[in-house]
Amino acid sequence: MRRPRVVIAGERSGVGKSTITVGILLELKKRGLDPQPFKAGPDFLDPMHHSALLDRKSRNLDTWMFPQVVPELFYRASEGAGISIIEGVMGMYDGRDGRSEEGSTAHLAKMLKTPVILVLDASSSARSVGAVALGFKEYDPKVDLRAVIFNNIGGKRHLDMLRDSLRDIECLGGIPFDANAKLQSRQLGLEFSEENASQERYENIRNLIESNINIDRLIEIAASAPDMEVATSEKQLTRPVVRIGVAFDEAFNFYYEDNLQYLRDAGAELVFFSLLRDNVPDVDGLYVGGGYPELFADKLSSNKSARLDIKKLSDEGMPIYAEGGGLLYLCRSLITTGGEEYNMTGVFDATACMTEKLQALGYVEVKIIQNNILSRIGDSARGHVFHYSKIINSNENFAYDLENEKGICGSMDALICDKTMASYSYLHFGSNPRLANNFVEACQVYSNQVNRT
Predict the structure, then answer these.
(1) Integer Cα distance of 264 and 279 in angstroms
(2) Looking at residue 131, what DSSP letter applies?
(3) Residue 148 near residue 133 (C-beta atoms within 8 A)
(4) Domains and CATH numbers, the chain
(5) 388 by DSSP, 3-state: which?
(6) Is the pTM of this model over 0.85?
(7) How far apart are CA 446 and CA 448, in angstroms?
(8) Exposed, middle or buried, 407 (CB in 10 Å: 0-12/13-18/19+)?
(9) I need a labelling partner for 220 at 20 to 30 A (CA). Which of 154, 226, 339, 391 fits?
(10) Which residue, among 329, 350, 335, 333, has the nearest Cα to 252 in the 3D structure?
């Protein structure tokens, strides 16, 4: 089946591939191609930018977390799109470690047989970038590196020098430096909020791409990608059997789009609501993802009805699953880096303390050591962690044993209290096909119990 597609990779983090990808997506949208965006790796923030600007939800593709389903997830999400744009992660060959290609943009490009366009930062350099481009091309000849885009060029003469330095790689153009067309950083990845999403800034980015990049040639490269033959599992369309509330607002918005789809496929109707403003809806289970609850701690604490409802529902045995920032919300209180302490739900008798220093970052292999609403003892799953916080005064049970010291207490992660579970680990449900089904089944059991009483 035909699936026009291209990877936008970078020589390293910070070369501008996210900004350039956004501009390419907006230009393709303007041309009516209905682009489907993807993001290599576990990051939540780049896909949020993609999804906010387009008519399609961006998806993560990760060859370490869920390699067995990457082709199928890509194939399903790209259906009906005129073109698919896959934004890379870090440098093109950067992955889980220095020995393996797993988790890298290069590995993903090879797995999906997708041509690559490499973004190179040309500031303070000229002919030397030709050596860099050649090194990237020859490091792994199985990667189909077709072209480069130069970023931060000084002008036409500079771009001509850069073009002349290339060997066997074409140049699609060069982007001059423009501070008004640069996406801003925030901790890990990109800053995103509706207040800061300047339409003028995005239009500046699109104009830079339209004026300086050969988009027609990019489309030709994408169209040259080989046809895909992917064995996809049939999804039986059934009426939802449970309703799961999904906390989604400025404070909680870190969700893998495919995790939500896995829940729908397992029989869940998803009900989105805000923990900043709303009451808890009439549902059979709750999913509280990550985000930045520390930035909205005052408002979260002020929504007392939601806090008390969640504590009550947890005590009554409703299945509640939380990750990252959701873990902080389910603690007794949250202390900001400024020392302010705010009441949270108190589901777990523990305190979440924000820190200036990054506490954990990277992939996690999860071994299940206690039965829970997602998995059973002996199961395994994969995900990632990223947090600037610690959990203190916790004497709870743990469901996960991580392969490293990135959990709540050393390698221990995922607090359990009856049918409530909260972890620092963000699991991707594609890493274990039973995760979503188990959660929906737990919600169904709870629903049946409530309806009988």
Answers:
(1) 23
(2) H
(3) yes
(4) 5-223 (3.40.50.300), 242-452 (3.40.50.880)
(5) coil
(6) yes
(7) 5
(8) buried
(9) 154
(10) 329
